[in-house]
Amino acid sequence: MRLLFILLTFLGLGWVSEVPLPDFGPSKKRKTLAEIREFREMVADLLREEFVEVAPDIKVRKDCRVERGIASWYGGRFHGRKTANGETYDLFKFTAASRTLPLGTYVLVRNEENGRVITVRINDRGPYIDGRIIDLSQAAAYKLGMMSDGIAMVQVIPLRCLAPESLTKFYDEIILDLANTY
User: Fold this and answer.
1) How far apart are CA 94 and CA 2, in angstroms?
2) CA proximity to 140, closest of 91, 175, 182, 78
3) DSSP state of 88
4) What is the pTM of this model?
5) Is residue 172 within a helix (H) or strand (E), and if so which, with residue range?
6) Per-residue pLDDT tens for 126-181?
7) What's the CA gap between 114 and 35, in Å, rounded?
8) Which domains does the chain have, with CATH numbers?
């Protein structure tokens, strides 16, 4: 459980960083009954948080927005150019362009046609073709299996919205993908 909290804190998920971890070590000051009740209520609120399943093995917080639409990819022509956040575009990194998501946001993109998932970092603005919700780097598109068609129907889920069990299920894959975003 502590590892999950560390992972979520590393990913910058604000709602997790507000939850204090219990102190199991020796303490000179005993916890008051009010402090214990407050901690229990906080944990109970987290456990009561409602989640909805948006795909097999993927649950998200009910209050989060999951986008569903067409993804495309961009590659060679833009390689080496500046992106909206000022870094140089690298078609071999797991990055993406979105019109609505804040720059620096990590999202899980799921290809609805084959079930593959990838974690990408939003570092650019786009796509500039109507009806598309995200432009993926060439490497991300390859991993999702959408290179030949050029487009795919996807779900775009911010990592901060994933339920703990969904984060746990995709933990290894998310960590490997995060290493490829920079």
Assistant:
1) 28
2) 91
3) B
4) 0.74
5) helix 171-179
6) 999 999 999 999 999 999 999 999 999 999 999 999 998 999 999 999 999 999 99
7) 49
8) 2-48 (no CATH), 59-179 (2.40.40.10)
